[in-house]
Amino acid sequence: MSDRIVFEDVSKFYGEILGVNRVNLSIPPGITSLVGPNGSGKTTLMNLMTGLVKPSRGRIEVLGCRTDDSENLFKFVGYSTQFDAFPKGLTGFQFIHSYLCLSGMPPQEAQRLAWQAIERVNLVDAASRKIAAYSKGMRQRIRLAQALAHNPKVLVLDEPLNGLDPLARSEMIEFFRASAAEGCYVIISSHILHEVDVISDQVILLSNGYVVAEGQIQSVRSEIQEHPTQILVRCDRPRDLAAKLLQSEYMIEVSIHKDGRGLLLKTRDADRFYLAMNQLALDGIQIESIAPADDDVLSVYEYLIGNEEVVR
Amino acid sequence: MNRLWWTQVKAVIRLELKKTFFAKRGLWIYVVAALPVALFVAYAVAMANQHHRSASIARQGEKALSYQDLLAIKPGMTDEQVVGILGRPPLRFHWTENHPTGPDSPPEQIQHEDYHYSDGQNDLYVGLANGKVQSIHIQEANNLGETAVMFAGVFQFFFLRLAIFFGCLGIFMNLFRGEVLDKSLHFYFLAPIRREVLMAGKFLAGLLATCTIFVTSEILQTVAFLWHFNPHARDLYLYQHHGLEHAAIYVGVTVLACIGYGAFFLVAGMLFRNPIIPAAAILIWEGINPFLPAILKQFSVIYYLKSLCPVEIPVSPGTPGLFALLISNADPIAAPLAITGILAVAMVALFVSSVQVRRMEINYTSE
Questions:
Q1: How many CB pairs under 8 A join A and B?
Q2: Domains and their CATH numbers in chain A
């Protein structure tokens, strides 16, 4: 059994409309975020990896399982979709319970797991109410509960934090982290970049149906050569440090930070800069910290895709 | 089928039955199923009233009459002769007609009388003019044989071809199509269940629903159709004249019709977005079945069902050729062959459905 979610040269067309094109991915365990503007192919990629849509070409395997083998695939995959529709007339509990019963689970076991999932998304009080009477946030949570109910190893979550209140968001993020720490695969699509930045182990950047970049955010950033690296240096004498740094040819721009207690600089060669800083530190300037200022998802997104439809 | 699949099928049936039985958009199916019941109830009420009226007239008569007594009256007899045979009429109407005889002569007056007799079941209407029998009409009591033919007609031409046909259309076409329109089909597709098992569960749920609705209707029709007959005639029909056997066959044909049309409409619901097109196509196909070559006839549900119906509907002399062909069953086949045939047709349709369900994608935006 493979330990990856693998896309091999996958394309999906809806008639003449491109969904995704020539996608090659190998997704390891941990939290992987799909990032891209609306229509970039995030949901298509998720629907492809759960077999809800079939690739026009290419091959997809989730931990060695073909996506058209739904009987086995959904034993270890849970998908919280963006589709905001439910079977008619069901309460929150019935929705989760009947989903678990569909897998052939004994009713008692299904009942236990259903309550466990409902507790996890804090919907116990509303569980006996009809879903039709739920608010948007509650519907989002019950979808999450459905995806989590059978404790899957792979969690595919389309905009899972939409509609959740801040407390529920932080609880869910904690849950995603704990799941990832246990070796689960948590695939999240989001356009809220600061959240992606906080929770992701790796990102997949999508634009117009193409994968623009993938991997850990720092390594993605280091691949982007055309944009100079931004670094924030905290020190006791920023003006002196700025004067010295401007003498080197790899420095493009140096500016005093707004609070006056550091420098924000742009360099073409971060490695040479770090070496130089060792020398400067010896010259009596007290360096408090050196940290990259643009190796977050937001910066990478802006460099690769532009700043369309981004929620910072 | 292994145990897991069967458990999953039961879970699908539980979910689907709730939706099928209580769906607002399916209420018309109950109306369609209830229509023939209402027809037979109305018929039974009318017949019972007529029976009560005949019995009342017979009681009012001077003497107890037999059917032979009623037949003894002939045209040309005098009113005395009629009264001599049948006694004074329990019901009598009379009026005078001014009959013109010429432009200059006064009109001739004709004394008309109507006598109404009954032996308790059959009614005799005697029309007299100036004391002589001019017309005789015997309204015979409703007999079970004729009513059984009427029942067969309603069953074949309304219940099978329209009620069950459209009922199955409403239920089976919505099994997948309805959920695509509601955008909730992904609920099933995200569960660890084989698509074929899901399809089987949905088909069985649809079958259970249609069989419950239409078999109940069929039983109620039979009860209504037999209700107004006296217990002796009823027992004679049920136990001596194969009435019970016929009733069981009608129930069996109803179930087979649900299987056949259900399988057809299940696959149609997956292949077509607009239900009107396949419904019209299948309705026409079933309608022109008698005119099709033998090989094509076999790909039809009605071809097999007609052969299984227990009562042949007689074609009256003078019925136009095409219409007669539609009524009669020109080349009936043996019951085992018919049952096998309809099940085979259903299996072919279910096989196509299982191929189609594996190909289905969730793409609600294209709907």
A1: 88
A2: 5-219 (3.40.50.300), 228-293 (3.30.70.920)
